[in-house]
Design brief:
globular, ten-stranded mixed sheet, two-stranded parallel ribbon, about 230 residues, single chain, binds zinc ion, mainly beta
Length: about 230
């Protein structure tokens, strides 16, 4: 399928209320992710995991990707997600374009994507390398840039530029939820309910291909340890 033929998802997804700036944050707000989790994790297969093996179940487990974007102008900007696109048990392919119901393309900025992970798995190497611009190469040693590499017109709310980030939502076996987001700089953050803020877990880059065709991200200071609360 060529890019021209590819369908563009529409937004905002009616299951997820839009979130108005200011949110007290410069990137994907937790309030949006909580609503995304409520909606995404209801979809067929979105929570199916073989917990004994800690593996998704082929043919049943399903990841869903929604595009995360902001729409509006510098004085009134809202966070939105597109209708989700279903993938399979180990991946979904995000669209970095969206057709918004309320705003023309000139007032829409794609920030990243959000998806569900099965079995409460952390971000994959593919997750860390997918960004809504072909100008930026995350495999190259990264400058400390979280904005819009190569994009002359970053989204702004008043004087605050919006930072690119992608996110995942997941549920543990005990039903508690995990919210993670990561930036083009490689920082991976988890929402801490106990601290009521984002906590940086480490700085990661896509890993090398293994014999199984899967890659594990390389992280500093060590492999990612998810918070328990
Ligand atoms: Zn993923």
């Amino acid at each position: 399928m060529t890019p021209q033929d590819a369908p563009v998802p529409r937004g905002p997804w009616s299951e997820v209320p839009t979130v108005e700036m200011p949110t007290g944050d410069t990137s994907i707000p937790i309030s949006l992710l909580r609503d995304v989790a409520d909606a995404l994790l209801k979809l067929p297969g979105a929570k199916v995991c073989d917990w004994a093996a800690q593996q998704p179940i082929v043919g049943l487990s399903t990841e869903y990707c929604s595009t995360v974007y902001v729409a509006g102008d510098g004085d009134s900007l809202s966070w939105r997600v597109s209708e989700p696109v279903a993938g399979n048990h180990k991946t979904c392919r995000p669209f970095f374009a969206v057709k918004d119901d309320d705003y023309p393309p000139s007032q829409v900025w794609v920030v990243g994507y959000v998806h569900n992970h099965l079995c409460a798995a952390p971000p994959s190497s593919d997750d860390l390398s997918a960004w809504p611009t072909d100008v930026f190469d995350p495999f190259v040693a990264m400058a400390e840039v979280r904005l819009w590499p190569g994009n002359p017109a970053p989204a702004r709310y008043k004087n605050t530029p919006i930072e690119l980030a992608s996110a995942l939502v997941a549920e543990r076996q005990d039903g508690t939820r995990i919210f993670l987001r990561w930036f083009p700089t490689g920082e991976v953050q988890q929402w801490s309910n106990a601290k009521s803020r984002w906590v940086t877990l480490g700085t990661c880059a896509p890993g090398n291909l293994t014999g199984h065709g899967m890659t594990v991200p390389r992280c500093r200071p060590g492999s990612l340890q998810l918070l328990s609360k």
